Amino acid sequence: MHHAPLVLAISVTLLSTSAMGDDATYHAERGLAAATQWPGYASLCDLDSHMRNVNVPRTSSQRQRSAGDEHHHHGSRQTSDVDPLPPMQVFDNLFFLGNHSVSAWLYGDEDGYLLIDGLNTDEEAREDILGGMDTLGLDPSAIEAVLVTHGHGDHYGGADYIAEKLDVEVLMTQADWDLVETLGEHPRFGPPPSPGRVVSDGETLQVGDYHLDVHVTPGHTPGTISPIFTVYDHGEPHVAMLWGGTGFNFGPDVDTFEAYAASAAKMRRLSTAADVDVFISNHAKRDGSIEMMEALAQRQPEAPHPFVRENDGEALFTVLEQCALAQAARFRTDLSR
Ligand SMILES: [Zn+2]
């Protein structure tokens, strides 16, 4: 884990928040303290960010702190974002098929897979998803559906390519099917998927012998999905939660920040109830997947699984909740001035 840049981010934030009110600083301090366990999410508490909303150019250091999906409303992506990551079997029934920009996760086994997300483009779907499955010796014809966590191009861009090639459906919430309809074509992403199946909060998706619980977490988009599902480590069960939408790229909207914070609180409750001990997302730079997969590749027999972090869930939801509350307070203060 990279602790040094985090220390820098904390000091930068504290120096610059005096004019924003105590509330924003209070929440940002709590979020940043919890982010020591999850440094990839620390930039959510940056109270200088999102200046693009008022058309002020951002500095290069601010750009570097953004994760992949925050780029799609303002300019071209850095070439380093599409550097490949090796495909990997992370659990008995969970496979990473993504790149440095965005993750796709394959859940299940040869009796049935659910593909979670479709990456940026048809090309990435072909190379990273189908190519990755080929590298791992997995059969794409066992994919039963493509679940798109939310209606942004970096997750749906290659979804239709997979769905058409394998003759399966794309699944998304109604709210995000509606969102996608308003977005249209974008040069960085594959086309929005043609209308598919609607999934709803509380629904359980059966995938071969496994199942996945759909939880809707409004905030990043109106219908973001953050599923909970059981994974196995050499037969030993663990419970995973995938945070389906991370970046604050929806503008300075206080209500949306508050909805985001409420969704984080909801997933804290559900994750505690379900004994979640694996916390992933759909961006490897955010959730620590890059470092955790490196550790997994070096794992000794009998050593703990690097993705199993039963003591870090509270910290994750605190970062997500408190940083959203910090931004809500910041923009509430801005509006009242
Ligand atoms: Zn997004």
Tell me about this structure.
By secondary structure, the protein is α/β, with parallel strands linked by helices. The protein has a single domain (76-311), classed as Metallo-beta-lactamase, Chain A (4-Layer Sandwich). 37% of the residues lie in helices and 16% in strands. The chain has 11 helices and 12 strands. It has helices spanning 4-16, 22-34, 60-65, 122-136, 153-156, 159-166, 174-183, 254-273, 284-287, 289-297, 313-336; strands at residues 88-91, 94-96, 105-109, 112-116, 143-147, 169-172, 197-198, 204-207, 210-213, 228-233, 236-243, 278-281. It has a 7-stranded mixed sheet. A hairpin with a 2-residue loop joins strand 1 (88-91) and strand 2 (94-96). The protein is globular. 49% of the residues are buried. The model is unreliable at 1-8 and 51-80 (pLDDT under 50).
